[in-house]
Every structure is written in C-alpha cells, then in structure tokens.
C-alpha cells in the first residue's frame, strides 16, 4: 500500500516530508478510478496516511498533518468494517466452482484459475497481477506458489491446496512457454491486469454460487483463506506469515469472528 502512495508523490516531485493535502486528494482520485466500488480500499489508505502524518509530526519531520485537511476523512467512519469472509458452505461451493469443465472457453478457464489462486493461497491482488508462470509449481511433489519479496513483505511460498490444482494446471498448460511471462496477462493489450478486472472476475464467481456481500473483491477470498487456516489450527503468527503480513492485526480480527461464533 505505502509503495503505491510513494510512487504517486514521487511522480509529482514530492517526498514524505513535503507532500500536501492536494496530492493526497489526487491520490484518492487515482485509486478511486482503479478499484472496485464498495471496497474498503479508500478507508484503509485514509487510516494509513493519517497515522503516517501524525508520526511525521511527532518526530519533527513535518510541522503539520496534511491528511487532516482532506475533506474525505470527515465522512469516513472511525471504526473499520468487520472483516468479510465466506462461511464454510460458501467456501466449499466456490472451491467446487473452480473445477474446470470441458465446455470452458479461455476466459472462463482463466477466471476459474484466478479464483482458485486467490482462494487457495490468500495472495493479494497486487501479488497475483505480478505472478509469473515460473512462480507456479502445480506438478511438484508439493505444489506451491512462490511470492517474491515486495516492499515490506518477505518472499514466501504457499502450498497449493488440491482443489486449486485442476484449474491452475489447465490454465498454465495453455500459456506460452516463456517462464518469465505473466501468469494472468491483461486481455488484448498484454501487461498486468488491473484491479477493476480482477474485482469483476471475483464478483462474477461469487454471484455464480449465490453469495452476496457488501465487499465482493479479492479481499474476501484472502480473508476466507486466512480464516480457513485459523479454523485448521494454525496460529496467528503462522497465518500472518502465509499472507506475507508483518503485523498480526488482520488475522487477530479474523480470529475474533471465530471466537464470536463459538460463544454464540
């Protein structure tokens, strides 16, 4: 997340010590055009920038907090929304949905493979966009996906579950031989996919199994993966590591949904 904001201000010849409220507003306008409506992306960026600016003021690097001048902050809630996830029945339906059919065209097969990778490994949308053919090991003794280091996230390998293998194998078999090629290139023009297309793929799959939620973006599949690990007995630390997270905050919030379920 922070890398994206840094790129934005660097392109405008600013730094963390000099960016202003107008550049924050322009950043929000940019992400608004590239993300799926109804997701918590803007809220998460808002909280991150507000914390960053307060910290920079505290250490004397800035004289004021430009984030406090952004009007959009005033209308966003103080509390983060509860994490959304698929319950076990919906999770199993979506796992079954990823299984290829002999009638699938290349678009449907691609969509099944995308959903299988999200749901089976918990990688982020940014990580999936940059995944290469060489990063997926479907026919290994222990199938896995390799996720390179990106920003604060260390490199990692995540084991691919059995349900994800058929779609990923079929999709990978139909791609160019170059291991350096993107696993899921953007249709037509090539290059990496954008968030809007990935969001549409996930939303269509969720609607296909009859699941409706306020947020139907890849994040709900990442949360579902993480919660599945917790239900399977993994610790917060292990699950956070599988997600590539330094903080355990996300996983702690997901574990709270399990505790509430047990006490109901």
TrEMBL record:
- Biological process (GO), any one: DNA integration
Give the GO molecular function terms: DNA binding
Q: Does the keyword DNA-binding apply?
A: yes
User: DNA-binding as a keyword?
Assistant: yes
At the top level, the lineage of the source is Bacteria
Q: Which Pfam families match?
A: Phage_integrase
InterPro entries cross-referenced by the UniProt entry = DNA_brk_join_enz, Integrase-like_cat_sf, Integrase_catalytic, Tyrosine_recombinase_XerCD
List keywords of the entry alphabetically: DNA integration, DNA recombination, DNA-binding, Plasmid
Show where the Tyr recombinase domain sits: 81-264
Provide the family line: Belongs to the 'phage' integrase family.
> Can you name this protein?
Tyr recombinase domain-containing protein
Origin organism is: Paraburkholderia largidicola
């Amino acid at each position: 997340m922070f890398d994206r904001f840094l790129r934005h201000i660097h392109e405008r010849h600013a730094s963390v010590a000099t960016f202003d409220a107008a550049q924050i507003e322009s950043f929000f306008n940019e992400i608004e055009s590239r993300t799926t409506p109804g997701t918590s992306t803007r809220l998460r960026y808002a909280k991150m920038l507000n914390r960053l600016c307060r910290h920079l003021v505290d250490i004397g690097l800035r004289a004021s907090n430009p984030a406090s001048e952004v009007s959009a902050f005033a209308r966003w809630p103080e509390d983060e929304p509860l994490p959304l996830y698929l319950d076990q029945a919906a999770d199993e339906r979506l796992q079954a949905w990823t299984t290829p059919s002999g009638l699938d065209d290349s678009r449907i097969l691609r969509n099944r493979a995308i959903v299988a990778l999200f749901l089976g490994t918990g990688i982020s949308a940014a990580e999936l966009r940059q995944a290469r053919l060489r990063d997926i090991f479907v026919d290994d003794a222990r199938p896995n996906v390799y996720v390179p280091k990106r920003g604060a996230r260390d490199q990692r390998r995540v084991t691919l579950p059995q349900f994800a293998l058929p779609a990923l194998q079929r999709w990978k078999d139909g791609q160019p031989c170059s291991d350096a090629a993107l696993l899921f290139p953007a249709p037509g023009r090539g290059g990496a996919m954008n968030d809007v297309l990935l969001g549409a793929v996930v939303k269509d799959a969720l609607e296909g199994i009859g699941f409706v939620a306020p947020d139907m973006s890849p994040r709900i599949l990442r949360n579902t993966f993480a919660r599945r690990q917790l239900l399977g007995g993994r610790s917060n630390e292990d699950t956070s590591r599988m997600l590539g997270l330094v903080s355990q905050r996300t996983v702690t919030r997901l574990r709270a949904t399990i505790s509430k379920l047990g006490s109901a």
